[in-house]
Amino acid sequence: MSTPSKRSEGARRRSAAPRARIDFRIPGLLRSYTNGAERITLDVASEQPPPRLDDALAALDARCPGLRFRIIDEHARIRPHIKLFVDGTQARDLASPLPASAEVIIVGALSGG
CATH code for 10-108? Predict the structure, then answer.
């Protein structure tokens, strides 16, 4: 009788974790972090169902290091000059749950004088 390896147990846990497929739209001012990509699509897993906006941003930062800090401040709040929209509705809370498939649009404010 064989026992499952730790590796197969970990793979099973990852596959059982709640997932969401997120299509990020990246504004021009942040594309230097994405090698110029306007869209990035990621499968996002979460320990707690359903995946949250913060989980999606963490996955985006894993793919594009440094990008999350341009969106979220050191107090874990969305920066004042950034707006996030999930399927067309503005998200104000990083704990916002995400549907199984969603579009997250990142909008950076323009200012000048």
Answer: 3.10.20.30
